[in-house]
Amino acid sequence: MEQHEQLIARAVAAYREVSATRVECASPGGLVSLLLEELIDCIDGLRGAIAAGQGARRDSVKRRGESILFSLEASLNGEAGILTDRLTRIYREVRQLMASAVAENDPDRCNQARDLIEPIAEAWRAIAQTA
């Protein structure tokens, strides 16, 4: 068992190193893209945790997703007008869908949240590739 735990610890350390390198080397568009990827992972994790009845994991993943959404919203350029308004509304709607998914124990709300975020993530992936 101890050897297994050491293997896991090394894997986690390697993942953190790769993750930190990705963040350090990313352009601003790349950072937004990374945040959106992580948000999608959170939404998928939330759906899975709700379906599996894993309350602690559900709450943890929801908090992480909310934190990402607040960060994305805070990073919006207030001078971008209608685009900022639309993204703000979408981020708030995704937050609401995640909250209602937990409150109603409804993983389908997560599907709705993912459907709202995925086109934005695709656009930022394209932007990050051209930067």
What's the layout of helices and strands?
Layout: H1 2-25, H2 28-52, H3 55-74, H4 82-103, H5 108-130
Helix pairs in contact: 2-3, 2-5, 3-4, 4-5
- Element pattern in H and E: HHHHH
β-strand amount: under 5%
Cα-based radius of gyration, to the nearest Å: 16 Å
Q: Percent helix among the residues? A: over 70%
Query: How many β strands by DSSP?
Result: 0
| Number of DSSP helical runs | 5
Structural class: mainly alpha
Low-confidence stretches: 11-25
The main pleated sheet reads as: none
Termini gap: 45 Å
The average pLDDT is 84
What sort of overall outline do the alpha carbons produce when their principal axes are compared?
A: globular
Overview of the structural elements:
The longest helix has 25 residues, at 28-52. With 131 residues, this protein is mainly alpha-helical. The chain is globular and about 40 Å long. Helix 2 (28-52) packs antiparallel against helix 3 and helix 4 (82-103) runs antiparallel to helix 5 (108-130). It has helices spanning 2-25, 28-52, 55-74, 82-103, 108-130.
